[in-house]
Amino acid sequence: MPKSDKFVIEAHSLTKKYKDFTALSDLNLEVEKGEIFGFLGHNGAGKTTTVNILTTLLEPTSGNASVCGFDTQKDSLEVRKRIGYLPENVKFYEDLTAFENLEFFAKLSGIREPKDKIEEVLDFLDFKGFENKKLGEFSKGMRQRIGIAQAIIHDPEVLFLDEPTSGLDPMGIKNLREVIIELNKKKGITIFMNTHLLSEVAKTCTTIGVLNHGKLIYKDSLPNTLKKFKDEVSLEEIYLNIESK
Amino acid sequence: MQKIITIAGKEYQDSTRNKLFLILLAFLFVLTVTSIAVASSDFQSKVVEYNKSVQILSSLGKSGETISAPQFFPLKMLRGVMDYLEIIGAIIGIILGYLSIAKEKGKNTLQLLLSRPLGKFDIASGKFLGNSLLVLSVLAIEAFTTYFIMWSVGGAQLSLVEIAKLGFVLLASYFYVMFFFCFTSVLVLKFRSLPNALIVSFVVWLIFVLIIPQIGDTMDPDNQIPGGFFKSMSIAKPQEKEIMARFKTYETVRNAVEESSVTKHYERLSFALLGIKDEYNGKSVGYVLKDRWNDWVWVAAFFGIALFLEYFAFRKRSFLNKTD
Q1: Which residue of B has its CA nearest to A90?
Q2: Is B115 within 8 Å of chain A by CB?
């Protein structure tokens, strides 16, 4: 059963251990509906583990989380119906065309006749004319668009993006940023984004959270953050300031 | 069910587009056709030779019945095919199992599949179903090709009982190939390194398919002389059994070594059904199945355990247990 309307993502005392290594430690997190949440942290901070738990791929060692009001462990199927996910460095099926890739994921999302839906999504992403090309022929930026397309084909309420700009050139980053903002504004999708690029956070996100060694050490809206750290000249300095504390 | 069929369809399509799989398949078919054509030709020449002998006797005014008609068991012609299925069939299972999971792990698409609204076992079921259909198609084409060559080259007609026996061999072959499929899938799911998983699969293949049966054969006293030790010494079956009874512990150990290999069980079962083991020639399907129930149970158990482990590996999702 759904728990709350205000927060689409809630995590309570979330802990994940891999034998002796603690990837996440007592994480408490709330993300409001309609936000673009930037999840920052160095490599190994636990960002991907958090996303894997929120997308129901992993079970936490202790604690619980809910997405769209559904428990990620008890109602994992309901959660998966409402989320879209683009993992880091996903290459898709290169010997299939863009249309075939999208058709496959659409059918797995329960869309029986996905042709119209695929056309609608490709139209939204300004990607028409490429649907019959094999993914092996695509640039990294084009593949990321297909990645976004498969993630939104079933109209999810929340979209999880794990380092979406990784490996993209400046133009690819700009295009993807525009897509993310449009998805949020036009389709009302809440976006949870793991990222390293602070410049992207500044231009895209409405709220930021900083994870350090599996613990959430900071969370606030971007305007408040900029106000709090008004002496710092850039978001990078703010981030380093937060991490050092 | 629709989602399972979607995954199964993609599995089937992916494998039939894979060059390595197609090369292996072509290799298996070339060997099968060659083996069965040679055996059929030999079979045909024996039939012709017998008919000629009858004709000669008739021309001499003697009845053809003075020489007893040889008993032809056309299924025995499948001896070579079974050897190839034991070796290459297992490799096909390994390659299909590897490709099925490695393509998802290597491209990070496994996370995409797992984040879809699928049931706990839908991915495992889809992959299993797609590859099962593929293996069954391969075996059915193999059986049809074999039957066609036996009929066209050897002039052999199979009775209903023989067709039923062939059907049971196909079923055992399906279990055997799918055991290697499931086993390799589990290793690829569990191992972080894809090449390591493949290497371990081939080590297991080597142990099951070549090493254990070879140890068993080497330990068999009857195999010490070509043609059989007891036969060459003109020792009759009852005496042979009497002698072997004195080596009961040795025989138990030898048998235990052989029984640890799924390949040996598959071989014993199929050789009995096809009459390659002379003692089963002309016996009913029921008799053979009853006499070799032990091998049926083992082949099915190897397959069943590997299948269970594959489903369990998907359920546990421990393959995602890595730090970022």
Answers
A1: B108
A2: yes
CATH number for A86: 3.40.50.300
Asked whether the beta carbons of residue A80 and residue B2 sit closer than 8 angstroms, the reply is no
B111 in reach of chain A (CB within 8 A) = yes
| B224: CB partners within 8 A, 6+ apart | none
Q: How confident is the model at residue A1 (pLDDT cuts 50, 70, 90)?
A: very low
Indicate the residue of B6, B17, B320 with minimum beta-carbon distance to A57: B320
At B172 the pLDDT is: 95
Residue B324's pLDDT band (boundaries 50, 70, 90)?
Answer: very low
Give the Cα-Cα-Cα angle A193, A95, B7 (nearest 5 degrees).
75
Decide if A42 is inside a domain: yes
Chain A environment of B108 (Cβ under 8 Å): 87-91
User: What is the total count of domains within chain A?
Assistant: 1
Q: Is residue A62 part of a domain?
A: yes
Distance of CA A5 to the CA centre of its chain: 20
Q: Give the H/E segment covering residue A23.
A: strand A21-32
* A140 inside 8 A of chain B by CB: no
- Phi, psi torsion values for B132, nearest 5 degrees: -60, -45
Distance from CA of B319 to the nearest CA of A (A): 10
Would an 8 Å CB–CB cutoff place A25 in contact with chain B?
Answer: no
Summarize the confidence of residues B192-215 as an average pLDDT. 89
Option in B109, B111, B323 nearest A49 (CB): B323
The better pLDDT of the pair B65, B179 is held by: B179
CB contact under 8 A, A80 and B321: no
Decide if pLDDT at B87 tops 60: yes
CB contact under 8 A, B6 and A91: no
Using CA atoms, how far residue A111 sits from A156, A176, B5, B110, B297, in Å, is: 13, 25, 14, 20, 42
Distance from CA of A228 to the nearest CA of B (A): 30
Non-local CB neighbours of B71 within 8 Å, separated by 6+ positions: B281, B282
Q: Compute the distance between CA of residue A80 and CA of residue A67 in angstroms, rounded to an integer.
A: 9
Look at residue A75 and tell me if it is in a domain.
yes
A89 CB neighbours in chain B (<8 A) are: 108
Instruction: Tell whether A99 is covered by a domain.
Output: no
Domain carrying residue A226? 7-92+158-244
Q: Which long-range contacts (CB under 8 A, 24 or more apart) does A59-62 make?
A: A59/B317, A60/A14, A60/A15, A60/A16, A60/A24, A61/A15, A61/A16, A61/A17, A62/A13, A62/A14, A62/A15
- d(CA B138, CA B25) in angstroms, rounded, equals 8
Structure-token match 């133009």, residue found: A171
Please, are residues B65 and B92 in contact by the beta-carbon 8 Å criterion?
no
Checking if the pLDDT of A4 tops 90, the result is no
B249 at the A interface (CB within 8 A)? no
| ipTM exceeding the 0.95 mark | no
Alpha carbon dihedral A92, A142, A145, A199, in 10-degree steps, equals: 120
Sign of CA dihedral B246, B247, B251, B253: positive
What is the residue extent of each domain of chain B? 2-320
Q: Could you tell me if A26 and A65 are in contact, meaning their C-beta atoms sit under 8 angstroms apart?
A: no
